[in-house]
Amino acid sequence: MSATTAPAGRLPVGWAVIAGKEFADHLRSLRFLILVVVLGAAAIVPLYFAADAIRASASQVSGAKAIFLALLDLPPRGLSVPPVYGFVGIVAPLLGVAFSFDAVNAERADGTLARLVAQPVHRDDVITGKFLAGLAAIMLVLVSVVLVIAGFGIARLGIVPAQGEIERLVAWLALTFVWVSLWLAFGLLLSVVLRRAATAGLAGFGVWLLLQIFGQLLVGLVTQVVAPVATAATEQQAVALQNLSDMITRAVPLTLYQEAARVILDPGQTAVSTPATVGQLQQYQQQIPTLLSLQQSLLLVWPQVVILVAMTAVCFALAYVAFMRQEIRA
Amino acid sequence: MSADGVSVVPEPAIRTRGLTKRYGGLVAVDHLDLEVRPGEIFGLLGQNGAGKTTTILMLLGLTEPTAGEVRVVGLDPARRPLDVKRRVGFLPDSVGFYGTLSGRQNLRYTARLNGLRRDEAEPRIDEVLALVGLTDRADDRAETYSRGMVQRLGIADALVKRPDVLILDEPTTAIDPLGVVEVLDLLRALAHEHGLAILLSSHLLNQVQSTCDRIGVFAAGRLVGSGTVEELAASFGLPLDDIEVVVGVPAAEAPAVEVAIRTVPGVTDVVAEHGARDDRAWIVRVEAGRDVGTMIRAIVQAVGERPLIRVGRRRVELDAIYRQAFARTDAGRREEVAA
Q1: How many CB atoms lie within 10 A of CB A4?
Q2: Distance CA B108, CA B128 (A)
Q3: In terms of residue numbers, what domain contains A184?
Q4: In this predicted complex, what is the ipTM?
Q5: Average pLDDT for consecutive 10-residue bins of chain A (330 residues)?
Q6: Is residue A283, in this structure, part of any structural domain at all?
Q7: Which of A195-209, B82-96, B168-182, B322-336 has the lowest mean pLDDT?
Q8: Distance (Å, rounded) from C-alpha B97 to C-alpha B107?
Q9: Nearest Cα to Cα of residue A169 among A275, A266, A25
Q10: Is the pLDDT of residue B73 over 80?
Q11: pLDDT in tens, B13-55
Q12: What CA–CA distance (Å, rounded) separates B246 from B310?
């Protein structure tokens, strides 16, 4: 404890230290256990019921279609359980919010925030570190689960992934990475803006529920009013109304994710939306079933991916700005 | 105690000039000029909401000043926050720790954030834990700590980085009386033996008076007075040379004693006070310029054969200064409103 000047330089990378501590906290926490159980169930349940269907189609198509990816995108037969990617699309927001809704406000309530920002780290390191820690925890489990699915496919069903399929799998993981990030950033925003963790959690889950259940209902309602496809007099009108209805559905972010995931995981998907004209529609219907390359699939869903990335950036930026402008008071 | 005897006055560790913070129309801190030198404990005294915490946040670069200048260890906290924060230990008001981590793990996190290597951090953590007397409980989860232990861990946490400056916001709240004495002794040792500059805020008068070398009285965002207790008393026009006399006589004899004291040359006023048990106590006011020692001798003679319990210069109490300071600010504010 001398009055001399402390040695200069050698300051740690603040966000890395914070992320490391938060990640370690996550691994020890109860919510991590819940994450493992939920994602594990998301993978194992559909896979279990889909196994027969996959085996059956495997013998028919003999490698022409990307059979390995069917592990992830084939819905279980005779059951109203979504395929793995559908399940991930639904639970990822929940997990994202669960890992960030109390990131800042709980520290504020516990009196640790003032102490943390009084250390020689930039204030944005706090936000960045917490965001990355949550992302790392969720992706760790997600990647593990996907590896388990792949292992199951190889060992029990004898389906070995081709190189192209592995690429698609990685692309889908990257897409899911963005999807989880969006909800983590949203949870983080809530944790900054709402002073009570319980309120933030409730708000986050409320928004999720709203979009998940009522979002579909509302969108359905709106499309029926604005774009009543059934009432179309001509084919042109029907196609136009269908297009409009597609656009309205995309107001729900989950639609964007599911469209993108479906196209990325299934090379047989050659369109995300209804063709714009009747001529194109006819062309599309007469098309010989083909498989797209990953590049072409990505091209098809690029708008969806860009919008998801943009929404994530906006949420994170809002959280960041709100946190930077906030007073640090216990 | 003060730096009076030191020939070379060290560069101030904390210095503010005209520091001002406004929140909309509310002025939280109003043209504050403050100086804290190494080896000195400076006490910020003020009511809740007087602007103490806002001042501290500006010193740490956690809030930007609206106007004025701040220098902490010679640096501007708003421009070089990291360099300031690595040399300033801070104990926030109602400090907290991560409950699921042990006290030691909490300190380890702070050490890592300050870039301490593991081999330098570990002995350092042991040292500060011993300083605050938490060695035995260091490996228990922080959520099992009492409020006083949390406060002491907070002081240890502020010391881990080997700071040159220590800023403590209400450091002794929630610590039991015995713990307070230990903490204050520790702070005195840190300042006077290790040369740290310590700024502490408090609304507990006794502690501030007994610990701080200099005191700044804060009211409505303004520093209405600063200096040692004696300097403050002088600046608020409080008499320094009052003499307290306690005589062990029954109530019936009290008027006689009072008259006897009153007749001593140089005595201007005698005010009866409550004495303990059968004792009678008076505060004797003397003419300005009289030697207190001579006056005391004269009073002793006047009391004569009666049992004299105590006589001596009355200690200036900080609460008198405090009341005076707030009476003034209130009056000033009323004038402003009226004008």
Answers
A1: 8
A2: 12
A3: 14-212+319-325
A4: 0.81
A5: 44 83 91 86 74 66 59 64 79 89 90 91 90 93 86 77 84 92 94 91 90 78 74 75 77 84 80 70 72 80 90 94 80
A6: no
A7: B322-336
A8: 9
A9: A266
A10: yes
A11: 899 998 998 888 888 888 888 889 999 999 988 877 778 888 9
A12: 5
- Which class for A89: exposed (0-12), middle (13-18), buried (19 or more C-beta within 10 A)? buried
Q: Is A28 domain-assigned?
A: yes
Residue A129 contacts residue A19 (beta carbons within 8 Å): yes
CA dihedral (A173, A176, A181, A184) positive or negative: negative
Residue % of chain B over a pLDDT of 70 = 94
CB-CB under 8 Å, A114 with B92? yes
Cβ burial of B239 (10 Å; 0-12, 13-18, 19+) is middle
Q: Is A247 on the interface with B (CB under 8 A)?
A: no
**Interstrand relation of B308-313 and B165-169 (parallel, antiparallel or unpaired):** unpaired
- Rounded to whole angstroms, the Cα distance separating B73 from B75 reads 6
Task: Tokens for B236, please give them.
Answer: 């608020």
The whole-chain average pLDDT of chain B stands at: 85
Contact A292, A270 (CB under 8 A): yes
Q: Is A308 exposed, middle or buried (0-12, 13-18, 19+ CB in 10 A)?
A: buried
User: Does A254 map to a domain?
Assistant: no
The verdict on residue A165 lying in a domain is yes
Q: Give the pLDDT score at A176.
A: 92
Instruction: Check CB contact under 8 Å for B98 and A11.
Output: no
pLDDT tens sequence across B253-296: 888 888 888 888 888 888 888 777 778 888 888 887 788 888 89
Predicted pLDDT of residue B239: 73
CA neighbours within 13 Å on the CB side: how many for B46? 27
Q: Which of residues 130-159 of B touch A (CB under 8 A)?
A: 154, 157, 159
Closest CA to A36 of A23, A26, A24: A26
Helix (H, G, I), strand (E, B) or coil at B176: coil
Dihedrals phi, psi of A14, to nearest 5 degrees: -55, -50
Number of structural domains in chain A:
1
Q: Dihedral through CA A84, CA A90, CA A93, CA A97, nearest 10?
A: -110
**Cα torsion B235, B237, B240, B241: sign:** positive
Q: Nearest CA to A206 among A103, A314, A94? A: A94
pLDDT of residue A81: 64
Contacts of A328 in chain B (CB under 8 A): 57, 62-63
Taking the Cβ of residue B95 and every Cβ of chain A, the question of whether any pair is shorter than 8 Å is answered with yes
Of the candidates B180, B208, B231, the one whose C-alpha atom is nearest the C-alpha of residue B45 is B208
The alpha helices in chain B, defined as continuous H runs, are 52-59, 81-85, 103-113, 118-131, 147-159, 177-192, 205-211, 229-235, 254-262, 292-303, 318-338
Distance from CA of B288 to the nearest CA of A (A): 43
Which residue in B has a C-alpha nearest to residue A15's C-alpha? B113
Q: How far apart are CA A202 and CA A196, in angstroms?
A: 10
